[in-house]
């Protein structure tokens, strides 16, 4: 059987969906590992990452079932493609002022995230260091405490790189999803050679 036929298309769809299953399990595993070892104490961050992993797992599982049973799931893949492409483009299009605004909004939402960031990056406060407040950074406990940097100064140096990285990874996976949409559409319109040759799908 030539590649482009029924079996090759089916195997390509199965391989693509198995890749997404592995990526989803990796997301859930990394989030659980980070929470278990105390790298991230914010349950909201862990819950979002695990939620994304579970959603990706469900989409991949439905796709794998669709590929094995010769069912159509093009609509689901297309919706996921549009959402992921939009988020990826938004990550790549944010300018520095928008990044800073989003970072400050996220900073003010969760005290546990603030503690995580202060402890990990060894910084205090977002835009200024308040010596009357508490801080989880080790630099705050040393004398003189004036050596502490603000977290905004440190985060801003990495925010652009992280957004470009996340946007690039999102674009890569969105185009693999577009490949999946094309393969699923093609697969749906190919007759199964094991079925009755005179039957139409």
What does this structure look like?
- The structure is a single chain.
- It contains 7 helices and no strands.
- By secondary structure, it is mainly α.
- The model has no long low-confidence stretch (mean pLDDT 76).
Topology:
Elements: H1 6-36, H2 43-69, H3 74-93, H4 96-109, H5 111-121, H6 138-141, H7 151-188
Helix pairs in contact: 1-2, 1-7, 3-7, 4-7
Q: Notable features of this structure?
A:
0% strand, 201 residues, mainly alpha, single chain
In short:
The chain is mainly alpha-helical and 201 residues long. Helix content is 72%, strand content 0%. It has helices at 6-36, 43-69, 74-93, 96-109, 111-121, 138-141, 151-188.
Question: What's the total number of strands?
Answer: 0
What is the alpha-carbon Rg in Å?
23 Å
Number of helices: 7
Overall geometric form: elongated
Oligomer: single chain
Biggest sheet character = none
Helix content: over 70%
Q: Span from first to last CA?
A: 20 Å
* Mean pLDDT over the full residue set: 76
Point out poorly predicted stretches: none
Order of helices and strands: HHHHHHH
Instruction: Provide the β-strand percentage band.
Output: under 5%
Secondary-structure class: mainly alpha
